[in-house]
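Please, structure for the following, as C-alpha cells.
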Amino acid sequence: MTDDEKNALRPASRDEVKAIVSYALRYLRGKRVHTADDVMAEVTSERITDLVEQSGMVVMKRPDAVAPSTSGHKHPHKG
C-alpha cells in the first residue's frame, strides 16, 4: 500500500462494518450460503460490531472506487 493510499483511508462507519459482516455471514465468494439466514446474520453482525466498538478497534476503509465506464468514447483527458 502506497503512502497516498494510506492517507486516503478513513474510519469505516458502524453501518459499513455491520453491513460487511452481515454479508460475510450470508455469502461465500458471492454465492448464497444457507447456514445463516438473514435474521441471524443481522443479529450476529450487530453483536460483532458492538464488540469491535467496545474493544476500541477502528476498521479503516479505502475511498470508493470510481465505477468503470462502459462507453466506447475516449476519455476527454486521455489520448
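The helical segments are 3-7, 14-26, 38-54. DSSP finds three helices and four strands in the chain.
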